[in-house]
Amino acid sequence: MPAPPLPHFHPWRPADEPVKAMALDAAMATLLGKVIEACGQPAFFEALLDFMNEVCAMHSGGAMIFSRHQRPQLLCYRRWARARSVQAQDYFSGPYILDPNYQRFLAGCGSGVYWLRDVAPDEFYNSEFYRLFYSQVGLSDYVDILWRIDADTALSVFLERDTSGAGFQPENIAALNAVLPIIFSAVAKHHAQAAWVPLPASTETSEEDQLTHRKVQSSIENFGRSLLTKREREVLFYMLSGYSAALTAARMQSTEGTVKIHRKSIHRKLEIGSQAELFALFIRCIPFATPDQQTDPLDAYQSVKATRA
């Protein structure tokens, strides 16, 4: 019997040139072999990114661990082209809680390929989070490949394109989905062979990572508690996350008019005039949060600010 034909992948690379189909040729087979060889080794994610870059060209990419019990942990980050850098501590000090990819993880989404334009809130591209961690860094598009480890932990392998070329296209997402069984199989084998995931059952997590995460969670739950109603605090979270008044109303089973009234009240009570001011105030209050207590970090922040004035 004749040998079955090799499967064809559609990596559509490079990002800023006309696309063309690419067979599983010797070059791609070699990269795939390197992924398999690297399972359980420190070079695994570098090899995986090389393979994924052949499938779907990216300007930068990496891998991190999402957890319900501590802040995300960056395992690998690599830039192929002109993506500008951002200080990692700026993201991991608290703003990660507003990342639509992390929020989707917390909501319990399954393993799969998630394209930013499909999962982000409707006004995310006008949000302060987007301005600081996408636009200002020079990124134009983002794809997250999430592999669930358990209910509380997941691996995020992410692909980025910058503003120097075109964003991802539906064909790119289809190509990633085509090789998803390969990616997940390789990740599962690596996970079984290497203690690379900081799971509470196997490795004690960093006290600093846990404390930061607890402060962030406390801030989300209690920021503005001394001034705002519970309903207003719900609206505030959607404002920070990039939801329009209409989408917020749908999520809260309210009306757009009521949400707009809440928004005006929030601005008045917090004495702010813009989304940028709201975002900055929230981030500045995180270090003053007291985990496991229903105290407003805004009170502590303003008290310290008053003593320094």
Poorly predicted segments: 1-12, 17-22, 198-204
Looking at the structure, the CATH topology of the largest domain is Beta-Lactamase
Helical content (DSSP H or I, runs of 4+) = 40-55%
The rounded Rg comes to 21 Å
CATH architecture annotation of the largest domain: 2-Layer Sandwich
Q: Class of the largest domain in CATH? A: Alpha Beta
Work out the helix count: 14
Q: What is the count of β-strands? A: 7
Work out the count of structural domains.
2
Biggest β-sheet strands, sense, barrel = 5 strands, antiparallel
What can be said about this structure in brief?
This protein is α+β, with helices and mostly antiparallel strands and 309 residues long. It is built from 14 helices and 7 strands. Strand 6 (139-150) and strand 7 (153-162) form a beta hairpin.
Can you walk me through this structure?
The chain has helices spanning 26-38, 44-55, 88-92, 100-106, 116-119, 128-135, 170-178, 180-193, 207-222, 230-241, 245-252, 256-270, 275-285, 297-308, and strands at residues 8-9, 22-23, 60-67, 73-79, 112-115, 139-150, 153-162. The protein has 309 residues and is of the alpha+beta class. It has 2 domains: 9-193, GAF domain (Beta-Lactamase, 2-Layer Sandwich), CATH 3.30.450; 207-296, Arc Repressor Mutant, subunit A (Orthogonal Bundle). The strands form 2 sheets. It has a 5-stranded antiparallel sheet with strand order 4-3-7-6-5, sandwiched between helices. A two-stranded antiparallel ribbon has the order 1-2. Strand 3 and strand 4 form a beta hairpin. Helix 10 packs across helix 12 (256-270), helix 11 packs across helix 12 and helix 13 (275-285) packs across helix 14. The longest helix has 16 residues, at 207-222. It is elongated and about 65 Å long.
